[in-house]
Specification:
Order of helices and strands: HHHHHHHHH
Strand content: under 5%
CATH architecture: Alpha Horseshoe
Radius of gyration: 17 Å
Length: 153
């Protein structure tokens, strides 16, 4: 069985274990930790956008497990970009034009760290033109950032 598993892809192996099993979660962490070592900056940005969109959908669907997983994934992706330097981080600014409010929100929230002049207007626009949790998130992010209490971790 073990030898057979080594020949299968992660996706094929994942079907053998339920998503709530500890073995599946461990395998997923190992795969995710190494998945983006050889990825281009553009691929990481695409994955960040996808994770932000899925986080927003999970938040609206009141699915905290998925929302928390997508949040952790976004943080890891941002850490990869940050490790690659300012040019890689600045590629997040391209997400400011997204049609998805959560994508714009998460890109702007991370961009506060390195380009606040461009991030603050995006967060203010989200606050003014949206309702519900997205509006609240934008307001609280701006409030804490202005009081220098925002920690992006």
């Amino acid at each position: 069985m073990r030898q057979w598993l080594k020949t299968k892809s992660f996706e094929e192996q994942a079907q053998l274990w339920p998503p709530d099993s500890s073995r599946f979660r461990y395998k997923l962490r190992v795969i995710m930790a190494t998945r983006y070592d050889n990825a281009t900056d553009e691929e990481i940005i695409e994955q960040f956008e996808k994770a932000a969109r899925e986080h927003g959908q999970a938040t609206l669907a009141a699915d905290p497990r998925t929302a928390n997983a997508r949040y952790k994934h976004m943080l890891k992706l941002y850490e990869r970009l940050k490790a690659r330097g300012m040019a890689a981080q600045r590629q997040l600014l391209s997400l400011f034009g997204s049609d998805d409010g959560y994508v714009r929100y998460w890109a702007a929230a991370q961009a506060l760290e390195f380009d606040a002049k461009r991030a603050v207007p995006v967060l203010e626009e989200i606050f003014e033109n949206n309702s519900g949790l997205l509006r609240f998130d934008a307001r609280m992010t701006l409030k804490h950032w202005r009081k220098s209490r925002l920690r992006l971790e």
